[in-house]
Amino acid sequence: MNISITARKFKAHETLKDFISAEVSKIDRFYDNILDVDVILSYQANKDTTKTAEIIVKVPGQVLTASEISDDYKKSTVLAVEKIQRQLEKLKTKNKSH
Fold it and tell me: Residue 79 burial (CB < 10 Å; 0-12/13-18/19+)?
C-alpha cells in the first residue's frame, strides 16, 4: 500500500505526516487489496480556518473517497479514516456475497 500525503497552500510538519501515515495504515486491516492511498490536506482562511482532510483509496476496480472538515488536521484525518473504514467493510461484504 503506497501512501502519499499532499499539503495544499502550506508545508506539513513531519510529526503531522507521521500521524497521518500511522492512521491511514490502520485501514489495511479492513481490506487486503489496497493499491494506493492519497491524503490531501488543505485549509480555507476565513474568520475561522477550516482544515480539510481528503482520503482517496484505490482498490482494484474502484476508488473510494472520504472528506472531513474540522478545526484540526488530526481530527479531520481520524474522521475521514473512520469513513473509509466503513466503506471498505461494506465493499468487503459485497464482494463476499457475490
Answer: middle
Which residue range is the domain that position 61 belongs to? 2-97
In total, how many domains does the chain have? 1
Amino acid making up residue 8: R
Q: What is the CATH number for 21? A: 3.30.160.100
Task: Going residue by residue through the chain, which has 98 residues, state the pLDDT in tens, using 9 for 90 and above.
Answer: 899 999 998 899 999 999 999 999 999 888 888 999 999 999 887 767 899 999 999 999 899 999 999 999 999 999 999 999 999 999 988 887 76
